[in-house]
Amino acid sequence: MRSTRIFTALIAGIFLLHCGSQPEAGVPDKPTFADHIAPIVFKNCSPCHRDSGAAPFPLTTYEQVKKKAKTIAKVTAKRYMPPWPADPAYSHFVGEKYLTNAEIATIARWAEQGCAPGQNGENLSWKAPAWRSNIGKPDMVLPLQAVELLPNLRDRFFLVKIPGLLTRDTWVRAIEFVAGAPNLVHHFNGHILMYEPDAKKNHAKPPFNVEITSGEYDSDFSKLDLLNDNGSKPFRLHSAVNYLPGVQATSYPNGIGTFRLSKMFTVVGNDLHYGPGNRKTTDRSYINLFFTDKPPTRETRELMLGTNGVSPIVPPLQIEPNTRSRHSTRFQVDADISLLTVNPHLHLLGKSIKGYAVKPNGDTVKLISIPKWDFRWQYFYTFKKPVHLPAGTWIVSEAEFDNTTANPNNPNRPPKRVGERLEYGGASMRAGDEMFQFILTYMLYQKGDEEMSLEAEER
Ligand code: HEC
Question: Domain segments of the chain: what residues?
């Protein structure tokens, strides 16, 4: 009797254990492209691996995936691809590109078994939309002036001006920067200047870009003729459109983040940064605008901790050669807020970064953890639902840096003292200087926010 009970308990235990890992267990015996592989690849790989995408080769048809099957099995097993630096055991985000163990095992089995196409699998292909966007069909496309890039080994920075003219003031639900040469465009920070009627006769006069060298960051854009005709400054919507490697533009549902765009406006890039390249090429980047008839329901704002932000870095970000160091920055919010996105930003010496919030009642809310910082993949991570933080909450971010030769990304051999360079009146954007920013988008809290899904309909 007794032994039966133990036996039953054992079986139940095994059963429970088994159930616990059930979602990982679903690896089909004979996976096919049509039924199993295409859905994984088209969702997690093709958005970058497509013609003129961010990745070096397309994975959009059976033939292309089959040809690379062994490598794909390898890079997914190592979790090198798809790049998703945020730890999914810590927090989850919209559009997470993260394969389950079962998906990885399915790919491996499919490759081992010789890449069965499945019914009609040879004909399956992922169609990138004719317009290049992660959101949908843009209502307006504004090209940047093309930039000729010669082979060179240094970073290049430009201030750019992209004027736009509409027939009337218009609601914008999303705005997106599309890199023309995604392997060279390192980042773009864009603000929108809006002109009152009659404030400026001609806002579309050249020059449309100027190359900048050190000492000219955060200038008042005097080189680009951006001020009102009477010398005053037009209204500036700060940080309206940003691009970093891997960033996909965000479009929130329910009118969140919609803003009014004046009839006469200019997108100002301060700055557009190209990394070193070894080929001659022409970059034709552009801006997509998405309009809506619906006025905004909620205003979104940005909060930046760390370098150039609202809170100091402790200890200050100066990293001695041949040392590893830890730094943190914290900020107390004075109103109830709902967080929408988080964007951690470090440069090449970054090793890890974490962000969490401590509520007045002592509860900790996990925001994001990137245990292995990778400079190449810096997303604006959107929470699945707004994260409510009551007034008095502390937002904390902690980062680790490695300024030794053990860090393969250390640009200095031998290592030298590196840190924020604030002497230009702004932080240096050069990858060789270090930065530590923890950037959040939020709105003022309203009851029910925590139940709202942030998955955009068009995604
Ligand atoms: C966010 C964009 C992005 C996504 C999503 C992505 N890749 Fe990549 N992939 C890249 C880039 C960029 C490179 C080239 C740079 C590199 O190797 O890191 C690359 C390289 C590769 C390579 C070559 C690696 C090597 O060692 O030469 C393979 C294979 C690959 N990806 C497969 C995949 C697969 C399979 C998926 C989906 C499961 C995927 N990628 C998802 C951007 C992406």
Answer: 2-123, 140-292, 301-451
